[in-house]
Design goal:
The structure is a single chain. The protein has 123 residues and is mainly α. It is built from six helices and no strands. Helix 1 runs antiparallel to helix 2, helix 3 runs antiparallel to helix 5 and helix 5 packs across helix 6. The mean pLDDT is 87.
Length: 123
């Protein structure tokens, strides 16, 4: 008999659904906040698995730091110092915004949705 592999995001979704539907209602009130935090952390992990937001980040870092030593902290420092700016990277603002939108889509989709104008696309 072949064993069917269940995708990680499906397992996480099942765990969250079970936690919320079966376990959460049976918990004493003082433990419900903790259970809600656990469910939220699992939801974030699930969205991270489904999203491929690292691609845009690494592409930008690879362009700016071909030696492979770039990270977002170094980029922030270089922007603050003026070493990286829109003169030497004209599409910097758009690319950073796209990275931020993807990060929000994973970490806090409700916040992102609350900031959208009717008919606006955040991509």
């Amino acid at each position: 008999m072949a064993v069917k592999r269940i995708a990680a995001e499906t397992l996480i979704e099942l765990a969250v659904d079970t936690l919320r539907a079966e376990i959460y209602p049976t918990l004493p009130p003082e433990h419900r906040y903790t259970a809600a935090m656990i469910a939220n952390a699992l939801e974030i992990a699930r969205r991270e698995i489904l999203a491929d937001d690292d691609t845009a980040r690494w592409r930008l870092l690879d362009e700016l730091y071909p030696d492979g030593d770039g990270d977002m902290k170094r980029l922030a420092l270089d922007i603050r110092s003026g070493k990286v700016n829109t003169n030497n990277k004209p599409d910097l603002h758009e690319r950073l915004r796209a990275i931020l939108v993807e990060e929000l889509r994973v970490r806090n989709p409700r916040f992102l949705k609350s900031r959208e104008s009717p008919g606006e696309v955040t991509d």
